[in-house]
Amino acid sequence: MCREEDKWIEVQVPDVSVVVIAYNDAERLPTAVQSVLDQTLQSVEVVIVDDCSKDDTFKVAQGLAAAHPEKVRAFQLPENSGGCGAPRNYGIQRAAGTYVMFLDSDDVLERNACRNMLAAAEGTGSDLVSGLCVRVHLDSRHNKTTQWYPWIYAETRTLESINEMSDLLVFDTLSTNKCYRRSFLLEQGLEFPVGIHYEDLLFSAQAYVAARRITLIPNQVYYWNVEEKAAAKSISNRRHEIANFAHRVEIHRRVDALLAEKGYEELKFRKDIKFLKHDLVLHLRELALMDEQYRRDFAELANGYLAGIAPEAYDEVQPLQAICAYLLTREDWDNLIPATEALTNQGRLTTSLVERDGQIYWCDGHLDDPMGRKVLNVTDAGYHLSPLSSIALANRLTSYEDAGGTVRMGGAVVNPLGRIPATAQLKGVLEFRARRNLGQRRYRVPATALRHTSSAIEWEATADLSRIRPYGIVDPVWDVRLLLTVDGKTLNTRVSVGDVDLDGTRSLRVRPRLTRLVSDRFRPEVTKKGNLSYVLTAESAAAVRTTAMIEGAMHGSAANLAKKSLRGLLKARKQLQSGETKVRLYHEVYSRLPIRKGLVVFESHLGKQYSDSPKAIYEEMRRQGVKFEAVWSYSGAKPTGFPQDATLVKRWSRQYLRALAQAEFWIDNQGFPHRLTKRPETTYIQTWHGSALKRMGFHEPSTKARSQAGQEALEKSLGRFDHFLVRSEHDVRTLAKGFRLREEVLLPVGYPRNDALVAARRAEAETGTRVRGPLAQELGIDPDKQVVLYAPTFRAESNGKVRHFEFPFDVEEFAERFGETHTLLVRSHYLNEVTLPPSVRGRVIDVSAYHDTTPLLELADALITDYSSVMFDYGLLDRPMIFFTYDYDEYANGSRGTYFDLKERAPGPVVSTESELFSAVARLKDEADAKYAAARERFNTDFSAFDRGDAASQIVAKFFTRSGK
Length: 965
What we know:
The protein is α/β, with parallel strands linked by helices and 965 residues long. It is built from 32 helices and 40 strands. The strands form seven sheets. Strands 17, 18, 19, 20, 21, 22, 23, 24, 25, 26 and 27 form an eleven-stranded mixed β-sheet that branches. Strands 3, 4, 5, 6, 7, 8, 9, 10, 11 and 12 form a ten-stranded mixed β-sheet that branches. A seven-stranded parallel β-sheet has the order 30-29-28-31-32-33-34, sandwiched between helices.
């Protein structure tokens, strides 16, 4: 009760007071206040505290108070405090409610926030209730939302102490998604620190520690509006100011002191981990863009604090985070700055790495320090094992010049562990690509120079950017990449700015397709992640005016209609390139063209290789001088290793479809696209690519499980074969029946690819000498060493996804034990890639890049395989084989099953462990060779009876010279 003019009147105490703080935010303040007035809990009040704004914020606040006198009160501080602490403290003192919440003027409350939090507080007697905060990204097209540490709020939970859930103090440091009992704040003397940023961290920690009970609810309570592109950055986003980091560190020191006073050692340890993972990383990401003075000041502040962090905390963070923190403590800028680039660009490798004693380290410094040796060890990251194509190699600018519309730039691509050898064939293309994918808008120029160094591939390129014709509105940003081709494999590298200063560079003239009244310059720019991009800008007076007009119009109804039309055009273009359209084009257009006599389309392994029996037939036709028009298909960006005397067409291109439609012959080893109907005038010779151990076709359970329509489609595709090559009665019983092939389709001539193996065995039997041929010299193999070929098949998941290749044995141990007397060749399946550790160089050689396995089989003195059909081919040479079936039960008894038990019929020892494998290799001559001679003969009889060495010549005679039967 209070007295007014000698009358007693009753004052209603609100359940919740929401303190709304504002500064120079007149436009957004009403929305924030309205989110409180719209609460489903009626007993709320709004306490607006203006931090002495320079605009009309306080007038707006007074207007809101006048419009809602019973629910809104407005106050203004006499001078600006420069932070959030002072206005919130003022609000606590002026609040009348039983509970207090905080709201920033640019955010809003969820409609039921007050009701849900009040119910939780009253029901549990908690001093503090915390709910789920949701970040709303206003810059995104559809206001994308992300939840703030949602695992903390997965369920309703009441804590008797913050020690029950350290993640709450460590991660949720916000004050705004919480409801506090006001008497609790006053009794504990809890206030926000003033004159320092990051006040939420300290206030929240003090509240968590002091609260007698805390309740968490899974409900959304607070919408935190985020504008990344805002002209005025929030305090937490002004990380380029060293004072910002100084405040962060000071707040952390105060929280540490609080935890130490309470004896909360585990909480302190968890907070240390978060500092390394989050707080420090936020500033490290921008360190490369800062000047030398900032870096010195930053190191002094950071290292003073890092000295108090337990070394064990480094074990709990990601390796790169630990590496950056450690290198910062050593102020090793040469290695730290590249590490921060890797931190910013996830997955990018920014250092050339070093190897010591079989271990891989981030850099060669500090390895004499036990801590450094531990933190800098990146062996487990697998950089030495992963294919280079799967690693994003750093590519930093080393020079940049502009003149007119031309730029000359140079850079260096990281060469980890020297894995790109000096002998590698290198090609480079500098690519400028529109960031918005509008039909692959790009401009490419060849690198004018490529130089190999021990740690990098250096490059130079000159580009006339006036030749780029952007549209001008929809493609304002163009990114820069170097496409580096190493021995036929392309590595896509993003060009980063590095230490090159672009501040003095000029903008370059450009001619947009939508007139220069829109934009007329390309300006080089450093992206947030430190990469090089070019941005369209307007510099002429006319362009500036037009751009302003367009910016205003881009958000109107006409603009939305234009954008919708453009998306429709792009969708139509995509449909024109779709598989469905191409199939129709093949059937309705190309298949009506006349058959071209003598046109032969060859394909091997779906266009991935120039190899196998199609290659053998092609070369036999060339050898015999057959007159024909040859077309080879290839897949991927660029054909490598294909014959130059044939026309090359990309698989599924229009040229490919037309060639297939008009061809007299199709020859492949796996299957042309299933949905393309073969014309009756075309002869399809299917060579296939290996005898079967695993069940195939309609013998597979997965095929039987298909729908009737699916089975009919498969049978129709297989029914296109006019001729199917088989090499034994085993193929007739397995492949032919599994594919439901008619008997008259089968050609029992053997595999053309094996003609060379039959000839090699005959020559060796006749002369008593094994000729290794030019491949041994090309690979640099010591003639005194035995050559062992390891050729496994691929592994797949139950859903058909191919697994990443990993050695099932220690290849370094193999090299150590047998490297003096043996050379191991590794030939992975074409669906896999293999990467060797640098320590085995010279003793183990990756030959997976060789399309054709036949020369490799001829070269090998012994074969290690598992379930690969290469066993049936290698058997023709009558040389020792070892079957390393470490996962036999999984493979043989898997979903597909096998046609026979390999353990019973293998023509060599079947081993399942690394020790058994090494033992078999050590006793290769006595065990795998002599002991299994009879088994190899039976094996050949059973699986290779039709391989007589003349398969290719029989095919040519039958179909192309008409001299055969």
